[in-house]
């Protein structure tokens, strides 16, 4: 990644059907890395073209619009580019922001795609029931912190794993997880999970993959559900680690199901109506890690894969 | 495994609530091996006690009964022991045979647990639709041969893999698979699957695990379903092989779900009513591999794991 400069006129070309925006917040998402490949990993996102700006979710302000659905001054969230100003043509992935009584940056996180991921992956894929045992990996991240809070709202017992004492402290003392542990301090993940889940795990919200998944598979309860949101520990490996314990899916009559949040945008409005009251009442909280300036973007993105972020990683370009 | 002899009176002890049976057919099932461990792999079956007879499914004739649900002369199928005569106490896993116009041995196969496994795993777990692309591994085995025929009845395109030319021939010419291949002749399983499924795989009926599963994961279509019935290639390994491509579950919004057929016995009658007419009309066929005599049992069971059986492996003790 390199930062380059050029000048542009802040006006759409005559007759353009696009939307010219000033980007305010950019979202650092692990899935961005999945497009930095030569091949297409899913049917829904092509690999980036080398030399082009990174494409990702963000919050922006409309400066000029050739699309009747948007007008100057509108605040929007959706797919934009990692640049100060962008012309967006694919406005089907651009949404007007109606609720401005939460921080705008939240549209890259708790009320954006990570929030929707937590909602779809936990409620729709896992159908949680009160009293169930829930485990969340990368639990202080953009998605995980919400899954834990949703689990508590549902009356579940929830344990989270993260990669530092600071994050473990957040899980227990800010997000209300029942228990949390630093996986780097647990060389035997199977033993750790057996201690936290003597009865086994009903629901695993999968954010990391690899060894953690393998240990979870050995600790499933009958009819367990695993929601595969991501596997961040695996994306930078030439070959992902081998997972050995899949036969437990049969022995425990368990289900492992993946999802792409981009295919659940139709649920977004319902989700926002569900989550906003909790945010306003302070019953759900959200921690962001804000990097300032476009030039801090590459390090912020790369930092995700080393767990350097604490909470949702955002890049702030401009407050308005 | 050793074969031992002793004598017994063919009469139940006074006041016994059990059922004394003469065993006619014993079923060689890969799952028997899962009970030859020191630990319990599922909540539904304890490890065998060394020195005791192997417990498995079979067909038997009632000689004496202390249970009002069974009487002398009844033909039954269900859990029995690998011996010529058995006293069965857990009669909740013993079922009367009502249809005797199919071979009795079929109650160890097509109308027994393997048949029910194919039915539940294909129809209930995978919800197949006409025109979908179906792949079955261990496709000439007790379960696989039926899954392929069910897939054809549903109007799917179905490809099977097996471990010999003889089996591949059966798949194509007896069971009506659209295509079949010998996995031992395909060092690059990924490339083989890409050739047979240029559009990808909608449904994978998993009987083998390991490298085959890994190759399938790379060839899933969006919304694919994997039904985990068993992973026979893995049971004799100290540690099962690593499966690397699980992130495709998310990228393809796919589901992988395991089941234990023993938990679906309530569907058995419905299944028999479904399958019997097809058998009688010759629209579904079934191939058995019959070993004769109790002393041939151990080699027949062990042979499953080397793929020595062609079709459902049965041990015949007595025809009546």
From TrEMBL, chains A, B:
It comes from the Eukaryota. Keywords: Oxidoreductase. This is Uncharacterized protein. CDD domains: double_bond_reductase_like. The keyword Repeat does not apply. Transmembrane segments: none annotated. The lineage of its organism: Eukaryota, Viridiplantae, Streptophyta, Embryophyta, Tracheophyta. It holds the Pfam family ADH_N_2. It comes from Ficus carica. The keyword Oxidoreductase applies. SUPFAM superfamilies: GroES-like, NAD(P)-binding Rossmann-fold domains. GO terms for molecular function: 2-alkenal reductase [NAD(P)H] activity. Residues 142-263 form the Alcohol dehydrogenase-like C-terminal domain. InterPro entries: ADH-like_C, ADH_N_2, GroES-like_sf, MDR_fam, NAD(P)-bd_dom_sf. Residues 16-92 form the Oxidoreductase N-terminal domain.
């Amino acid at each position: 990644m390199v930062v380059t400069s050029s000048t542009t006129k802040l006006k759409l070309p005559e007759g353009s059907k696009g939307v010219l925006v000033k980007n305010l917040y950019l979202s650092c998402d692990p899935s961005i890395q999945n497009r930095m490949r030569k091949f297409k990993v899913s049917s829904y996102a092509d690999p980036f073209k080398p030399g082009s700006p990174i494409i990702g979710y963000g919050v922006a302000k409309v400066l000029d619009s050739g699309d009747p659905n948007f007008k100057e001054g509108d605040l929007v969230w959706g797919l934009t580019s990692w640049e100060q100003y962008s012309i967006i043509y694919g406005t089907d992935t651009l949404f007007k922001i109606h609720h401005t009584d939460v921080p705008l940056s939240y549209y890259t996180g708790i009320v954006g795609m990570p929030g929707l991921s937590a909602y779809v992956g936990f409620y729709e894929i896992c159908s949680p029931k009160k009293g169930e045992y829930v485990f969340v990996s990368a639990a202080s991240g953009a998605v995980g912190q919400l899954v834990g809070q949703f689990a508590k709202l549902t009356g579940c017992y929830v344990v989270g794993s993260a990669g530092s004492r600071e994050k473990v402290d957040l899980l227990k003392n800010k997000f209300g997880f029942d228990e949390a542990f630093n996986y780097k301090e647990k060389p035997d993940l199977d033993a750790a999970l057996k201690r936290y889940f003597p009865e086994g795990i009903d629901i695993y919200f999968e954010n990391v993959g690899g060894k953690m998944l393998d240990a979870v598979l050995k600790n499933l309860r009958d009819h367990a559900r695993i929601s595969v949101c991501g596997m961040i520990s695996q994306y930078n490996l030439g070959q992902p680690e081998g997972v050995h314990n899949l036969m437990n899916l049969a022995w425990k009559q368990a289900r492992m199901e993946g999802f792409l949040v981009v295919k659940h945008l139709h649920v977004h409005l319902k989700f926002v109506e569900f989550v906003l009251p909790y945010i306003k009442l302070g019953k759900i909280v959200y921690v962001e890690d804000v990097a300032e300036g476009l030039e801090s973007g590459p390090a912020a993105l790369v930092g995700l894969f080393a767990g350097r972020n604490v909470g949702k990683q955002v890049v702030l370009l401009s407050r308005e």
